[in-house]
Write a structure and sequence with these properties.
By secondary structure, the chain is an all-alpha fold. The chain has 14 helices and no strands. Bound molecules: iron/sulfur cluster (2 copies).
């Protein structure tokens, strides 16, 4: 059994999202009834609120090392319905941040996927100024998009012209090339806010987990560890799968 080395509740209380998200849960279940993620995943926001308000370090650690905190879609429907003005979605954000900060995210199948997000959307922000960059998204990784993407890929210039975009061009307009000075400023923001250190920490903890699992780990997007965490589905996450 893992020995808790941190007062997780105290740590969570230093996160403004946690303070705003929990005024005291009465277990009514309204958030669960409205939650889109609870409809699909083996997930219950009422239990998240109930668990964190126990202040039980071991129970909170179970959340930090588990899959459930990664199921929420952060839609905030729960915030608008809760009769006690709680927001399980905000609690989830604070729990996710703490899971990453403590390195416990690598203990769960869904938590490990943080590396994919860091190496794609996270790095695209710094490289291009956009969190979603069309040309970096491979069709092979997103088969759910079907033949529409293939058509788009072959007609990007014409397509963006019809939307009035300045696609990869200078000057104003959607999808314009983000100037080097702006990218440098973004990098600086990441550095001074600690986001760059957090990115490095995600890499470090992921490398350790890859070694533990005996999987290839390098900077490429298709190394053994990345492939495994991107594609693995152990069959325990959704309501139609066995627990
Ligand atoms: S709606 Fe609010 S009070 Fe009801 S279970 Fe969810 S968090 Fe608790
Ligand atoms: S924010 Fe998360 S917990 Fe709240 S309703 Fe949306 S998916 Fe559910």
């Amino acid at each position: 059994m893992r020995i808790c080395t941190m007062d997780y509740y105290k740590e969570l209380c230093s996160d403004v999202r946690f303070v705003e998200g929990l005024t005291g849960c009465l277990n009514c279940g309204t958030c669960t009834a409205i939650c889109a993620a609870a409809e699909f995943y083996n997930y219950d926001p009422r239990i998240i609120a109930e668990t964190v308000q126990t202040r039980d370090n071991n129970k909170i650690e179970e959340l930090l090392t588990g899959n459930t905190i990664w199921y929420c879609g952060e839609c905030m429907s729960c915030k608008t319905r809760c009769p006690r003005n709680n927001a399980p979605g905000l609690l989830i954000m604070a729990l996710r941040a703490l899971s990453v900060k403590t390195g416990l995210f690598t203990e769960s199948e869904k938590g490990r996927q943080q590396l994919v997000l860091k190496r794609t959307m996270g790095e695209w922000i710094l490289k291009y100024g956009y969190c979603l960059y069309r040309e970096e998204m491979s069709m092979a990784d997103h088969p759910e998009q079907g033949p529409t993407w293939e058509w788009q890929n072959n007609n990007l210039d014409k397509l963006f012209e019809r939307f009035g975009a300045t696609y990869k061009g200078d000057g104003p307009g959607p999808l314009r090339k983000v100037p080097a000075e702006a990218l440098a400023e973004l990098r600086k923001i990441f550095d001074v806010t600690g986001a760059s250190d957090l990115f490095n920490f995600i890499e470090k903890k992921s490398a350790e987990k890859a070694e533990e699992l005996g999987l290839e780990f390098n900077e490429k997007l298709d190394c053994g560890y990345l492939n495994q965490i991107y594609n693995l589905d152990s069959g325990i996450h959704t309501k139609d799968q066995a627990i």
